[in-house]
Structure formats: structure tokens, C-alpha cells
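Morning F.,

Quick status update on the modeling queue. The single chain you submitted on Monday has been processed. Sequence for confirmation:
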Amino acid sequence: MAVDQLSRAFVALADPTRRDIVARLSDRDATVGELAESYAMSMQAVSKHLKVLEEAGLVSRSRDAQRRPCHLEPQVFDLMTSWIERYRRQAEARFSRLDAVLAAMGDSDTAPGADTPAAPERRPSPDPHGPTVADTRSHRDRPEPAPDSAEGDPS
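C-alpha cells below.
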């Protein structure tokens, strides 16, 4: 199965080290050695990360005498941005429709003559924790204590 350039770009940027390399290259071009100075990894490991970024089309290397600087390729970022922007616009349109529905629902709730029953009026209780079970029973409602069977039974 062939993987398209957009998928390769997102896969390449899934790694935090590669995202950091892209951020550093967005400031200025750099060689593998210059990039490797910032990481606790070998130049070969940084070179492997750069190879993934190159295969995704995000980075390219050029030759400048003895130097081989790496630089970003903005075309792939334009492709990624347009893809993300399309879905951002769709999501924004859905949220706008939802806002309109909620606003219409809010207008109907506050309209005069709406069939919304009024909430019953509640008076505050003198005790902030409410009445206890003992407060609600009268003296006559309290159960009689059970006779202790150990005292009166000689068996």
C-alpha cells in the first residue's frame, strides 16, 4: 500500500525529537553536527531522524562546500496546513449551527407564555443539614427496647 506525502509528514512529526528538529530548522539551516549538539544522542541517531524528515519531504539537505546544511521545505507544511484548515472550517461550521440551535432553544425558553412549570418555592431549613430521624419521630413512634434475653432466661 502506497503511503501519501501527507501521511508520511504526520508520521514523521509524531516523534517529539523530530518536531524539535523542525522547530530548530525553522529558525535557520543547520548541519547534522550542529543539530546533534542539542541532544543527548549520537550524530547517527540525529541523522536517522533527519532521514525520516527527508523521506516525508519536510527537510532537504544541500551541499555548501564541505557543509551539508539541512533546511525546511515549506511546500509540505502548506499541504498539511490546507488539510487541517479544511477540517477546522467544517468543525467551525458545525459549532455555528449548534450555537444557532441553542440560541433558538434559549429564546423559546424565555419567551412569555412558555409552558415551563415554575419550580416549587423552597424555604430554608433552620438546621443547615436538615432534620434528623430523631427530630421527625414523636416520643410515641419510637420503638420499645427489646428485652435482654440473657438476663431473664436461665437456660
